[in-house]
Target: Thymidine kinase
Amino acid sequence: MAKLYFNYSTMNAGKSTVLLQASHNYRERGMETYLLTAKLDDRAGPGRIASRIGISATADTFGAQDDLFARIEARLAFGGIACVFLDEAQFLTKDQVWQLARVVDDLGVPVMCFGLRVDFRGELFPGSATLLALADEMREVRTICHCGKKATMVVRMDAEGRALTDGAQVQIGGNETYVSLCRRHWREAMGDREVTADGC
Model:
């Protein structure tokens, strides 16, 4: 039975690596996959999903105006798809998440979305919020804070290494400006908590 999946994490947790490995597993067994990524994120080049460990694959791109149900339905006309893999899912619109739900329900094709849950201010991305509401299954791709606890938040740093508390929600590139932290250390970085003597 087809399902809508949301695989979420913070920055630099390996979401694209997991996506590419899962797609490879399907293809290795002779099953076709369809890869999509956000048009505005061209860090690896236009229409490319790339992992920090060096693996990559070509993908079709989507923008905010694209009807993803129509796009996937048109792709199906050229042959079967075992699974749709979508990277940078935080950039989906609410309507596009509903379109993906229709792909699952009406076309019977599983859709696996990978993306960030929250931005550097601790706020949900619109696409992620809708996926949290509609996904049949959610999986966390885990990474760790410098203290060893699970990182669930991310801060955006300026050139002097200070955490930014304001700015545009979307900033493409500059992965080195983001640091994944546990909630406690995110609050500390954002000025919501004082550091104790032991640094915790």
